[in-house]
Every structure is written in C-alpha cells, then in structure tokens.
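Dataset card, provenance and construction

Sequences and ligand SMILES were collected as paired inputs. For each pair, a complete structure of the chain with the small molecule in place was predicted and serialized as structure tokens. The example below shows a pair involving flavin-adenine dinucleotide. Curators did not alter the output after generation; any descriptive sentences attached to a record were derived from the structure itself.
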Amino acid sequence: MIQCDVCIIGAGPAGLIAGIFAAEQGAKVIICETNTVPGKKLLRTGRGRCNLTHSGSVDDFIKAYGQFGRFLRHSLYEFGPSDVRDFFQKLNLATKVEATGCVFPVTDRATDVSRVLVDRARRLNVVFWYGKRVIEVEKRPKGFWVNTENKRIECRSVIIATGGVSWPFTGSTGDGFDLASGFGHEIVEPKAALVRLITEETWPSQLQGVGIERAGLAATVKDKKIKTSGAVMFTDDGIGGPAVFDISRLLADDLASGTESIEMFIDLMPNIKDSELDKLLTEKCAASAAKELARVLSDEMLPRAIVLKLCHWIAPSTTILAGQLPKAKRKELVRLIKHLPVKITSTRPIEEATITRGGISTEQIDRKTMESKLCKGMFFAGEIINVDGPCGGYNLQIAWSTGALAGKSASK
Ligand SMILES: Cc1cc2nc3c(=O)[nH]c(=O)nc-3n(C[C@H](O)[C@H](O)[C@H](O)COP(=O)(O)OP(=O)(O)OC[C@H]3O[C@@H](n4cnc5c(N)ncnc54)[C@H](O)[C@@H]3O)c2cc1C
C-alpha cells in the first residue's frame, strides 16, 4: 500500500491544476490516470490550440455561467481568468487574446499547455500513475483507500476529477459518477451540450457543409427567449457551428426532458433589420432588374447554395428575374432570411458533444472548498460537477478554478 496526503483521480486539466495547487501547499500528491498519457482531451481543445480561457472580468464570467454562476463565484475569485493567464506566464507560456475574446497560448499549441502543467507538477514532486484506472474508493477511519485493479493508495483526501462522459475515448467515461454515487451523491442526468442539433426538416442535408459566418439563433422555451449568435453550418442531419453549440447548451435540459421538438429561427443576416433588408432588396432588384434574382442575392449577400434554396421556396417552379419580384414574395424572402424556421428534435449523441451538461449536484458540494457535503475529505473538480459554460474557454476556466480550489482545500 502506498500513502499520500492527496490522491487525485484523473489527469485532465482539473486534476493537473489540483495536483499543482495541493503540492504547492506542501501536500504529497499522487495522480491516478486511466490513460498512459495525461490530458488526452486537453490536447484536443480549441482544435489543438487550446482556448484556455476568455477575456473579461470575474463578474463577466459569473454572468456567462448563468444559473451556475453562484456556485462558481468563489472559485473564480480565488483563481479567475486573469490568474490563469498569470499562472501560465509564470510557467513561461505566454497567452494572447484573439478578436473574439478567446485566450490561447501564444504558441497555439495545446501540447504546450499540457507540457507546462505536467512539468510544474513533477517539479513539485507530484507522482503520476498512468494506466491506472481507479475502480473503487473506500472510506477509512483516517481518510480513504483508492483502489486501482492492482494497487491501493492510502490518502487523507481524495479529489475526483474524472470529467464527464463526452468524447469517452479520451478517458472520460463517467467512472467518477459511479465512484461518487457510492457515497450518496446525486448525479444530475448527463446530457450532450455544445453539440450539433438534429432538425425535423431534411433540407439542411442538401446544404451540408454550407455555412454562415455570422448568424443569429432564437428559440422560445417555456416563455423564455433564448438567443445566440455566431457561425452556423448546415450538416447532414441538422445544424452545427459555434452559435448552434451555444444554444444547444441552453436547450439541452428541455430536449432531454422529452419535449417533442423546439422551434428555432435562424437569422441569416443579423446585422440588418427586417425593414432595412426589405429596402435593400427593393433597391438591389431595381438596379439589376434584368438579372436572375438568385444572382442578385448571392452578390455579397448570402452563399449561393442558400440563395438557391430560398428562391426555390418562394418560387418552386420558376426562375424569377429581380425586376419581376412581386412585393408579397419579397416580404416572404425577408421573412425567410431573417426568421428561417427549423424544428429541433434532439442533439447529436453525448459521445460527440464537446461537454457534458449535468454531473454531481452542486447542492452537495461546498462551493467555498469543493468538498463534498456528504463525505468529509472527498473533493470534486472540473466537468464532473453539474456546471458548464458556453464556447470560448469558459469550460476550461471551470476546470482551472474548481481544480485549483479543490487542490488547495484538500491539502489543508
Ligand atoms: C474536442 C473538444 C474541444 C474542446 N475545446 C475546448 C476549448 O477550446 N476550451 C474550453 O474551455 N473547453 C474546451 N473543451 C471542453 C474541455 O476540454 C473540458 O471541459 C475539460 O477537459 C474538462 O476537464 P476535466 O479535467 O474536468 O475532465 P477531462 O478533461 O475529461 O479529464 C478527466 C480525466 O480523468 C481520467 N479518468 C476518468 N476516469 C478515471 C478513472 N476511473 N481512473 C483514473 N482516471 C480516470 C480520464 O482519462 C481523463 O484524463 C473541449 C472539449 C472537446 C471534447
């Protein structure tokens, strides 16, 4: 049997930062990881560039997390977005803010983020046990036994940082949910979030691969208006892209609760009001009266594939010349461009989702320490907790903030 002060289950971003913070306080730390390498998912983040946080104040973050802001507040004030940037800077990995507000390492390499974390942990004598899947945690009079298939660790505190259940081939298979529920923790049903959406309509498949760089999305659920904006892409069974990912997170609970379908409207030109678009179309059609309407619309307005679809909808069997567009059809065109309806039936499977929504109930975790309220000495960090954020670095920030707080608290 091997002994340590803090045993961490999972070497993802939450587990790694927790290990560093615990060891900085003088704790003897062991991190157990199923995989033979750390941070398999971390290496995939930001398409391999790692969008490690976002610009903005702690209060901006609290607002962005919505219903989860209150729970995360303390951890964000302890180790917030600017602390994360300072932390990596001190490890000689400078960061940069892009026009979108997303923060990346200047090297644009997630491997560098993982490398500096592991190097820092090793310098603090954190011991890594790779290829060691934890199968059981037992409560003992003075702490815990953490059991892998062939090894046992005796520790004072345990931090469960095993992630959610999305992208399971990276190691996040939901083991932590089983380990925690053994101690009576409630698991809020895991759902897919930041994921593509499936539509009832099949026409998006005809536009597969066609995208709009800046679109608006709007839906009303239980009298609540939900809106996002950003890139939207049509897929073989629905819609994808950052704006869709963000709205998927806000619709996930309703879609999972058996709602038949949710009506959503795509604004293909969010920078222009309906009345202005109507005026613009009138002017453009008058100026190019002899041209095909589809040509006029695809000139600097919308991708041609989408324009052809719109023209087909307003006049299925004829080719309209711009000068012959009747007022009623122009109004119909404006409606379709500004409020293109789609019925969302479900998300793509959770295995494909960027994050898991759901996890250990925050009601059972002390938000000032990340310690379980049911089991003293047991802590949680990262995506395993029932908190999540939008695209743009907000989910890794959850891992950094809750991981740092759990590590610090567990070492006491
Ligand atoms: C493709 C993709 C891109 C993303 N890009 C971004 C981005 O750019 N910015 C952002 O903010 N977020 C991004 N995310 C989300 C972000 O990666 C996660 O929120 C984050 O990795 C969660 O960290 P974690 O440490 O809690 O869990 P994980 O990263 O899932 O790590 C959990 C670790 O625990 C290990 N483990 C599980 N069970 C056991 C066990 N029984 N014993 C031992 N070890 C175990 C796993 O192998 C894994 O290594 C992205 C996600 C994906 C899938």
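Derived descriptions for this record:
The mean pLDDT is 96.
The longest helix spans residues 394-410.
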